């Protein structure tokens, strides 16, 4: 099984990256083949719809990783009640063929209080539009869930991410085993 973990934060010192890295390491420990896209390091051009953009090396790498993925674990910060523009830009380079009938787990890093929920609602809507199977469960991390190095460290938060990863693995197994039936319909 191959899962693409996506860090949707363009920020160098990002708590969102902390969630994504924690999820990626956890999935690897569970025997999953993990690819990692980092919007802060794998810089993509601004999506304009021009087909020439698809020849960009970073775009081709993202597209290949998404093609090969059987499931996704997508993390975003919340900017102005939505997902990050960097993550939306990355998703705009992909299409329904990358996501159709593939399970997706979603998580957000919030600045505090009740942040993160709107970003996840926004992300959930976009992923539905790409025909993915977004898990009903989700995770929002507050700043207190991280250590000084911006690593996810608070015990209950790590347990929640682990539970979300298990749900993603379980659904991905079921969907992958039935992929032929899903593509015939």
Automatic annotation (TrEMBL):
One of its GO terms (molecular function) is FMN binding. It holds the Pfam family FMN_red. Residues 1-141 form the NADPH-dependent FMN reductase-like domain. Transmembrane segments: none annotated. Coiled coil: none annotated. InterPro entries: Flavoprotein-like_sf, FMN_Rdtase-like_dom, NAD(P)H-dep_reductase. GO terms for cellular component: cytosol. PANTHER family: CHROMATE REDUCTASE, NAD(P)H-DEPENDENT FMN REDUCTASE LOT6. Belongs to the azoreductase type 2 family. This is NAD(P)H-dependent oxidoreductase. It comes from Fictibacillus marinisediminis. The lineage of its organism: Bacteria, Bacillati, Bacillota, Bacilli, Bacillales.
